[in-house]
Recover the amino acids of this structure.
């Protein structure tokens, strides 16, 4: 019996299965909405025929890979130039041949990782194509990694490259991690933060346990975010979906302090100053 790769058209989660999977575990989780029209689990060939590659360079040494039209949650896979070889963090929904060729041109992938399952995208493709020795995911999120093999489970911290360090935040998912690029001043924040953009200008921030269900983080979860993220210096953030600047450490700490001042909420907090 042959195992094939299938993606959920609703959220983009990939599964290796004997045939069309019976359901999508990510959509079935409380943090995601269910597809209103039922399951549409698409085999890889069908996904590849639907999508084309798109990429852009939001910061020096950082390339964001996307798929057009938007598929699933519409994630972005980040390729980060680093000492010792490129780090790929998060995954695009799919990597058509020209995207893989562009990554090859940029030097391939030496280390691979992700914040949590909503950012996995087609990480399995990058592992299959580039065979990086390091594939890093938080130990508490291993249940979501059936489509690829984790080679370096992350406990609390892991230096993927000089100046590029993974930190576990928990919260949104138990194993949720962020990646701090100390050299560029960028926090690859996973779903620890949601940025409301006006075009490309960040206007407000929020944080959530469950975005679709609008479940807030508990006070202890926010305290954990503050204790980890509040110690990192950055002037921009990159979620699994977009790049946003300027968003600073002070902006994010202000959000966390506001969340700790009363009843938990998912409401967005406007960024201060002239923004």
């Amino acid at each position: 019996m042959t195992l094939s790769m299938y993606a959920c058209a609703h959220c983009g989660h990939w599964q290796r299965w004997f045939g069309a999977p019976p359901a999508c575990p990510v959509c079935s989780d409380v943090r995601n909405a269910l597809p209103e029209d039922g399951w549409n689990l698409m085999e890889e060939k069908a996904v590849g025929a639907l999508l084309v590659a798109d990429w852009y360079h939001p910061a020096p040494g950082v390339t964001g890979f996307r798929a057009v039209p938007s598929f699933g949650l519409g994630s972005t896979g980040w390729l980060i130039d680093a000492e010792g070889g490129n780090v790929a963090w998060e995954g695009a929904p799919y990597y058509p041949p020209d995207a893989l060729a562009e990554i090859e041109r940029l030097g391939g992938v030496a280390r691979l990782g992700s914040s949590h399952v909503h950012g996995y995208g087609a990480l399995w493709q990058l592992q299959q194509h580039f065979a990086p020795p390091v594939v890093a995911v938080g130990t508490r999120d291993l249940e979501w990694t059936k489509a690829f093999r984790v080679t370096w489970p992350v406990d609390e911290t892991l230096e993927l490259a000089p100046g590029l360090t993974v930190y576990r935040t928990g919260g949104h998912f138990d194993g949720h991690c962020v990646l701090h690029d100390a050299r560029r001043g960028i926090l690859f924040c996973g779903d620890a933060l949601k940025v409301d953009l006006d075009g490309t200008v960040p206007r407000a921030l929020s944080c959530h346990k469950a975005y679709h269900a609008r479940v807030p983080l508990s006070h202890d979860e926010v305290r954990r975010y503050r204790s980890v993220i509040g110690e990192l210096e950055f002037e921009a953030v990159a979620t699994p979906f977009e790049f946003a600047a300027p968003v600073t450490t002070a902006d994010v700490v202000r959000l966390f302090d506001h969340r700790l001042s009363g009843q938990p909420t998912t409401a967005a907090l406007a960024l201060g100053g002239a923004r």
In short: The chain has six helices and 19 strands.
